[in-house]
């Protein structure tokens, strides 16, 4: 490869074009270009310009190696910044590492053979956190190798890590700013709960991994404490036989979570539904009365069931009717977390109840269901939780099923509870149901819903403003922002940001153990002043023991930190500020860097990073977090399944790059449906086909020119020939490439890469199969007439222009063309095509 020359050298150069090699190895040529970039420090020198283009990069976890999804997103994150850098903007590209949270903790638990919070507490939080610290960056070298080999320019030296004290201090500042605005509160709510990790998850995390499962579906009998004549108006029962009037009916309730039945505190009816009393006993037998929705009766009961009376759910669900509990349980609370006096085992009503599934009688366990908790709060039903942080039943159920479920995981206790109900004649029907169920996206274990004290950001307070600001963002494709993300914002719930874990940014809240007063800390300096101790690290094992005495005049006591840590999504949403240590440094950041000009991630981040960025930018600064966003789709294995390392259902990315080259892989990925946020099936054959259809034809176009230019010792003229003097075919191809330049700039400015890549790659076909094929004879002539010179000039100009146009997309091939065609041949040529200005249409 021709070495890069200085502009002054180029001005004097009379070098003759070299004849291109016959069988090039594109991967090997790319490695030479990587050396060229490194030796010339080209990336750092490309960060220049009077205008600033702000690009924010979401941090990946370094606990695993990059996959094709990362390479796709990284390519998009490379194309756009390269383009705007060539347009004269200063585009800094800092890499970041997400170093906290469950992925790291799961890795270290496996490594140390620890399972759950109890084992971690025994091991020691200090030992555990330092073990986490030791592994969080173990794959950084692999990341750097793959990212660099893909041709992506990004600053690994000035990277940011979410575990750095400066980053964590800015996260504290973000939290304190929300606190001061009244947007942080502690609530006792039913949350998606990972018993494997011992922590609640946010609602958007619970939506990240739904799986088809088979669960038990049981219908149980709950005996009324009153006879029928006391339950209903006299007018309804006066004509009934006394044996029916005096019978105690059984409510039929249906559930797919039998393990929640010991926590049953109420039965909920639909106020607009009709309920029927049916006698299941034959003539002359003791009455066996059951109550369920009329609409469900035909599905649940046999044809022999005799209708007795029908009454509305509104009349039955007044809270005045009671029933006998299924199980004898201990220590039912007498008040709710709100302080309201509660009363269990009553029949209530709510509009969410339907008769579409089950019986129309909903078993209500306020500790384990969102609707259950809401109804329980409305009707003053107790919240009864006999489940510990690891999902096992506690000693509160010593009297349930002979104590056999104590210490047993709730899902494993289903069979024991069902058998006990059956033995006591309280199991009316048993079946199974296939349905979608949420799993913990990190541990792969089924979630449960559990009432727990959690810290929240009051998203509902800023939800409407978030939607307004979202309308100011250009989403590509548009429907992702207006539909998928927009619809999500309309129903956005308050964000649960605390985790009962260890390796993360601690919540900066200190609580007085006597008065209950809470203080939120927003900086290291503030913590040092209050505690009287130097602070060099903000992780739990450094700050948990920092305390100070409360004001004696206000009740004394001691301020101690609460135990929770922040959700790592809070950290990634804080990255625009925390990566710059705002506001402790870079105080002009908000004015100059918010919103960012561009971000890019996968479709799944509509409920992840995109969402948390917007929450915080809205709440803190009343601004959108980003102006433009490209959303890519999911890359699947060739068989349509999710890519899995354990299944080995996809080829190793580095082997693909080493076989076909990074440009071929880049072209394959970005010229696919994923750029439109649609899924694609990865195929190594597809990459190989790109070499044949894109890379080789472009090389052949260059090789054709280089071969004949070397033979004829042709050099670019100092003054190009007027285009009007050239052949029609010359004028045509020059017109086509100029139109392409105009189209590319227009579409790149609006970030519609799906309208950029196909025509750019398609131009190669125009160049090779139309222009060169039809102009071939002009280069064969032995004489050096004007038409031959025009053909050389035209092909040279097109290849040089196209190398600039191609530079952001296929950076290696573009550099190869530039080094072979311009460095050493064109006066004023720069070290790299990536230092040139992006072409604009004449």
Could you please describe the fold and organization of this structure?
The chain has 842 residues and is an alpha/beta fold. Helices cover 40% and strands 16% of the residues. The strands form nine sheets. It has a six-stranded mixed β-sheet with strand order 12-10-11-8-7-15. A four-stranded antiparallel β-sheet has the order 6-5-16-18. The longest helix has 29 residues, at 684-712. It starts with 6 loop residues before the first helix and ends in a 21-residue tail after the last helix.
Short note summarizing the structure:
40% of the residues lie in helices and 16% in strands.
Give the radius of gyration. Answer: 34 Å
Shape: elongated
User: How many beta-strand segments?
Assistant: 28
Derived from helix and strand composition plus strand pairing, the structural class reads alpha/beta
Major β-sheet profile:
6 strands, mixed
User: What would the average pLDDT be, to the nearest integer?
Assistant: 90
Number of helices: 32
**N- to C-terminal separation?**
31 Å
Low-confidence stretches: 1-14
Overall helicity: 25-40%
Task: Report the oligomer.
Answer: single chain
Roughly what fraction of the amino acids lie in strands? 15-25%
Q: Which strand order do you get reading across the main beta sheet?
A: 12-10-11-8-7-15
């Amino acid at each position: 490869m021709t070495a890069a020359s200085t502009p002054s050298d180029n001005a004097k150069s009379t070098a003759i074009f070299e004849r291109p090699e016959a069988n090039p190895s594109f991967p090997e040529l790319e490695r030479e270009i990587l050396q060229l970039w490194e030796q010339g420090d080209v990336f750092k020198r490309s960060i220049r310009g009077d205008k600033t283009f702000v690009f924010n990069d979401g941090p990946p976890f370094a606990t695993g190696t990059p996959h094709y999804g990362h390479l796709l997103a990284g390519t998009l994150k490379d194309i756009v910044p390269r383009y705007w850098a060539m347009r004269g903007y200063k585009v800094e590209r800092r890499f970041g590492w997400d170093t906290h949270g469950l992925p790291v903790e799961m890795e270290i638990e496996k490594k140390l053979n620890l399972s759950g919070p109890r084992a971690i507490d025994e091991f020691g939080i200090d030992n555990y956190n330092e073990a986490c610290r030791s592994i969080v960056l173990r794959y950084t070298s692999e990341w750097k190798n793959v990212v660099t080999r893909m041709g992506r320019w990004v600053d690994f030296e000035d990277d940011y890590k979410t575990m750095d004290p400066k980053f964590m201090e800015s996260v504290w500042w973000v939290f304190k700013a929300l606190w001061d605005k009244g947007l942080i509160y502690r609530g006792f709510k039913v949350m998606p709960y990972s018993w494997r990790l011992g922590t609640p998850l946010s609602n958007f995390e619970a939506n990240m991994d739904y799986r088809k499962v088979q669960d038990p579906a049981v219908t149980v009998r709950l005996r009324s404490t009153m006879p029928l004549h006391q339950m209903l108006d006299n007018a309804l029962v006066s004509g009934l036989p006394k044996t029916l009037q005096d019978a105690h009916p059984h409510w039929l309730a249906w559930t797919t979570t039998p393990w929640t039945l010991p926590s049953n505190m109420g039965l909920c009816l639909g106020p607009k539904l009709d309920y029927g009393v049916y006698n299941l006993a034959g003539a002359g037998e003791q009455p066996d009365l059951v109550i369920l929705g009329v609409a469900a009766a035909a599905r649940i009961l046999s044809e022999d069931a005799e209708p007795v009376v029908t009454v509305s759910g509104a009349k039955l669900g007044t809270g005045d009717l009671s029933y006998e509990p299924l199980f004898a349980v201990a220590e039912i609370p007498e008040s709710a977390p709100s302080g309201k006096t509660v009363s269990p085992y009553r029949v209530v009503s709510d509009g969410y109840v339907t008769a579409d599934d089950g019986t129309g009688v909903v078993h209500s366990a306020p500790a384990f269901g969102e609707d259950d908790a809401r109804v329980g709060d409305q009707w003053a039903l107790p919240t009864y939780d006999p489940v510990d942080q690891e999902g096992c039943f506690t000693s509160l159920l010593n009297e349930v099923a002979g104590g056999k479920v104590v210490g047993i995981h709730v899902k494993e206790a289903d069979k024991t509870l069902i058998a006990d109900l059956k033995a006591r004649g309280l199991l009316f029907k048993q079946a199974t149901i296939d349905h979608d169920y949420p799993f913990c996206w990190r541990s792969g274990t089924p979630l449960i819903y559990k009432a727990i004290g959690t810290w929240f950001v009051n998203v509902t307070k800023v939800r409407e403003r978030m939607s307004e600001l979202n309308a100011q963002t250009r989403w590509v494709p548009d429907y992702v922002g207006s539909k998928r993300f927009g619809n999500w914002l309309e129903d956005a719930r308050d964000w649960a940001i605390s985790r009962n874990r260890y390796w993360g940014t601690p919540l900066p809240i200190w609580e007085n153990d006597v008065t209950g007063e809470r203080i939120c800390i927003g900086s290291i300096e503030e913590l040092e002043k209050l505690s009287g101790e130097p602070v060099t690290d903000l992780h739990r094992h450094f700050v948990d023991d920092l305390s100070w005495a409360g004001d004696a005049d206000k009740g004394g006591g001691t301020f101690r930190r609460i135990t929770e840590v922040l959700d790592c999504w809070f950290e990634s949403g804080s990255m625009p500020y925390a990566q710059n240590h705002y506001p402790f440094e870079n105080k002009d950041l908000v004015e100059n860097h918010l919103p960012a000009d561009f971000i890019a991630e996968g479709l799944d981040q509509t409920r992840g990073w995109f969402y948390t960025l917007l929450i915080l930018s809205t709440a803190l600064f009343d601004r959108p977090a980003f102006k433009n966003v490209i959303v890519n789709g999911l890359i699947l294995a060739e068989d349509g399944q999710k890519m899995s390392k354990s299944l080995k259902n996809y080829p190793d990315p580095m082997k693909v790059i080493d076989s076909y080259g990074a440009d071929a892989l880049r072209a394959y990925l970005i010229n696919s449906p994923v750029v439109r946020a649609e899924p694609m099936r990865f195929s190594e054959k597809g990459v190989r086909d790109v070499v044949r259809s894109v890379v080789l034809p472009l090389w052949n176009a260059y090789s054709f020119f280089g071969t004949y230019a070397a033979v004829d010792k042709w050099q670019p003229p100092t003054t190009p020939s007027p285009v009007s003097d050239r052949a029609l075919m010359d004028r045509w191809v020059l017109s086509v490439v100029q139109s392409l330049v105009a189209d590319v700039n227009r579409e790149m400015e609006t970030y519609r890469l799906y309208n950029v890549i196909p025509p750019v790659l398609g131009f190669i076909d125009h160049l090779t199969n139309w222009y060169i094929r039809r102009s071939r004879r002009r280069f064969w002539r032995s004489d050096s007439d004007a038409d031959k010179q025009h053909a050389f000039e035209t092909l040279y100009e097109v290849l040089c222009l196209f190398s600039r146009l191609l530079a952001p997309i296929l950076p290696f091939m573009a550099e190869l063309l530039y080094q072979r065609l311009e460095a050493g041949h064109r006066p004023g040529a720069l070290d790299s095509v990536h230092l040139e200005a992006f072409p604009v249409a004449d």
